[in-house]
Amino acid sequence: MSDTTIRTYTSDSQRTERTTEETTDERTDVDVCPECGGTLHTDESHGETVCADCGLVVEEDGIDRGPEWRAFNSQEKDQKSRVGAPTTNMMHDKGLSTNIGWQNKDAYGNSLSSRQRQKMQRLRTWNERFRTRNSKERNLKQALGEIERMASALGLPKEVRETASVIYRRALDEDLLPGRSIEGVATAALYAAARQMQTPRSLDEVATVSRIDDMEFKRTYRYIVRELNLEVAPADPASYVPRFVSELDLSDEVERQARDLLQTAGEKGVTSGKSPVGLAAAAIYAASLLANQKVTQSQVSDVTDVSEVTIRNRYQELLEAAENAA
Prior knowledge:
Elements: H1 2-31, E1 40-43, E2 48-51, E3 57-59, H2 74-80, H3 114-131, H4 135-154, H5 158-173, H6 182-196, H7 203-209, H8 214-228, H9 241-248, H10 252-268, H11 276-290, H12 297-304, H13 308-325
Antiparallel strand pairs: 1-2, 2-3
Helix pairs in contact: 4-5, 4-6, 5-6, 6-8, 10-11, 10-13, 11-12, 11-13
């Protein structure tokens, strides 16, 4: 019995020594300069790992995994420290509430019994009810969900969704919703946010994914912009070009030519009073002809949702402006 114990103890000691040696070797490889073998020093303020002997920068742009705030006493540290996900305007409670997970498993990964699953389902139901305490929060929850759905269908980035959520919250706080549908104000907020963040979508594109008709959408958009004093600049036709060029699978040369045509037309005053989407479609069609990458008017029309007649009229105007400028 004692012999077995001794042998086991010896084996564990050898394993511990071997692990210690491997860890030491790994640490030695990391902490030694590859150029001169000197000691490495980590400069956290600059995010660099530098050799203390020869000055070689071994690693740069290091990640600072500490907090972004500073505290000079224990009281400030307690006030500023936090856990959990960052707050967001895309949720009605700004992401501060908690949810009960949908998995019917306990902390050890074991499946719950039938009675426990029923209990958890009731708790989820009541938790969802308590998250929206009044009609204003229920309104906000429905609207933000609608904004998220439409933004996802249009491929809009997170910053546009955040801006649209802020616009809708302002409209709700200033009591602009009576007499208008939640979907209408949400659609108008998303369209205005896309224009403000320089990632515009056409009226037809937004109306396609919305659940309201075109007239209500346009009327609500004008009302929201006027009442909230939103600064929405006229849409730049060039901002539509990269997306349409990508969908048509054309080259960078076509995109550059289209931008040049639109810039020249803008300087000549040709673009004034005309639809920016129609101008972008015509510029892409004209640029494809100039770059010998022919694409049909029908193909451009299908991607941009602009009629072929509009494309023909606009592209001739763009080419004439380019010829006059030359």
